[in-house]
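Let us practice reading a record.
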Amino acid sequence: MLSIAPMTPPSPRAAIVGIAKPTLSADEAELFHAFPPAGVILFARNIQDPAQLAALIIELRRVLPQDAEIMVDQEGGRVARLKPPHWHAHPSAAILGGLFETNPAAGLRAAWLTGALIGLDCRVAGFTVAATPVLDIAIPGAHAVIGDRAFAQHPDAVARLGRAVANGLLAAGVLPVGKHAPGHGRARVDSHLHLPKVDRTDLTADIRPFALNADLPWMMTAHIVYDVLDPHLPATLSATVIETVIRGRIGFEGVLVTDDLAMKALSGPPADLAVQALAAGCDIALYCSGDFAPTQAVLRACPTLTPAAEQRLRAGRNAATHRRLTLDPAVLAAERQRLLA
């Protein structure tokens, strides 16, 4: 009797993508079987309450590769997809930075508690990656797209508070993402709508918070043209910026994911942008719109994860496992409330 070897499932594509609704469609499930992404990112349009979210993540786990990441953009403040009454409310980075300015120890503790509480909400819900902390410095007069999402103006304060949030997330067993390398704080337009260009010649302060957090497991690129680094291409698409600054000057060796390729800072078909970003040195292309046709095109166009990217993803998962602690969210929330009062 002939034995038939089981079919090897397709290798994950170097992309994390969004979905359209609070449920997974048959077309999306079929696409993910044929061209499995490295993960899925969820937004407010996908999240109603804990029961619905749990059911959705079960469905995603049924169709995604075993180690696929489930990601959410959850910084606190105005960038939050998990919200009350079902999940904790979290202060903005600027509030934590204000406390740090008057009482550094209390500010750092509140930042760690915030990271831990965000992480606990995320992990219990089924997420493995939270797109925070923001490591951009606050720049007076810049566009408000960063604004109170930044901890402070001084790069060392940003670095220390970002580190505290990241450590809290890891204590909860969730991977942090430092963003937006090599620095979004000077943008004078919203990269969701336009391509920012930064003409400053000295970016030492902007880069420093990323360099001081170079051992984070994940970082996200910025859709910004830096004239002094590469006057032609935004960082996300620039091999020069990625190789000489993010991997070189910053010294980052972890998973490098693009910012959302659906943002209007970038022009061209998302599939082409994904290929460009991966060729420039990003490990994962992020496409968040949930629109089926371009999502399908992105997954078809993206190559599978490189061995280096797979190793970086494994290292991140190991860090989240080994640094996870047993935490009581009620105790942590009460302590943070006292510090912020």
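A brief commentary: The first strand starts at residue 13 and ends at 17.
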